[in-house]
Amino acid sequence: MMRIVILGPPGAGKGTQAKSLAEKFKLTHISTGDLLRENVKENTALGLKAKEFIDKGELVPDELVNEMVTKKLNSLKDGFVLDGYPRNLSQAKFLDSLLKETRRDSFIIYLDTSEKVVIERLSGRRICSNCQAIYHIKNMPPKKDSLCDVCRGTLYQRPDDTVEMIKKRLQVYLKETQPILDYYSDRIMRISADEPKEIVFRQILENIENDLHKK
Ligand code: ADP
Ligand code: AMP
Fold this sequence. Notes:
Blueprint: E1 3-7, H1 14-25, E2 28-31, H2 32-41, H3 45-56, H4 62-74, E3 80-83, H5 89-99, E4 106-112, H6 115-123, E5 125-128, E6 134-136, E7 155-156, H7 163-177, H8 180-183, E8 188-192, H9 197-214
Parallel strand pairs: 1-3, 1-4, 2-3, 4-8
Antiparallel strand pairs: 5-6, 5-7
Bound molecules: adenosine-5'-diphosphate and adenosine monophosphate.
């Protein structure tokens, strides 16, 4: 059972690569950001609590997110690609305890990006309001203006993708999320992710294949 965790700052391309990996290896894509936004949209108890943190660009408290992830993982029979989680050391340790890892089929991928690229990517990002497909006005534009290629849903800009909120989220990333790269240092795969998405994807696949040969 293949398990992939994708790490990296907001805008690194985690969702984009996670979707391609899920398709290639027939895995369930779990994005904690998508799950939380869905809860906000549906006004669930979790959504109501999470909203104030998301609106400030801060992390939603661990106990809420950990519970959501536990439920999701327990509902799966097959492998998964996890995007947006873990986001701090305590979540990383929680995930380890949850999985009691069989390391052979587990991969920790870090999308290494420069701040300039991340800001450019986030400010041009558009999301399908229906199926959550990810676009970029310049880098990955839809075929028809503002409409999703997959499901014809309308595209929207996330309210936390404004310049001010992007800066805040990057600060939170540096302070809270970056330290987990050290926690995973013995098994992390570092990918240069400033490249176009096909090149990043190829690098990820090469790393996974090399790793499988070593194990
Ligand atoms: P994350 O999930 O890490 O926040 P996304 O996958 O949502 O990042 O990507 C952020 C933005 O950058 C989106 O608009 C996406 O279309 C675009 N993008 C993702 N990967 C690349 C890439 N390799 N090159 C150029 N643009 C990209
Ligand atoms: P993302 O879609 O990954 O950019 O996440 C959007 C927002 O959802 C973040 O700014 C956080 O407020 C919240 N969020 C997503 N994943 C997590 C997580 N693992 N822990 C805490 N908050 C999260």
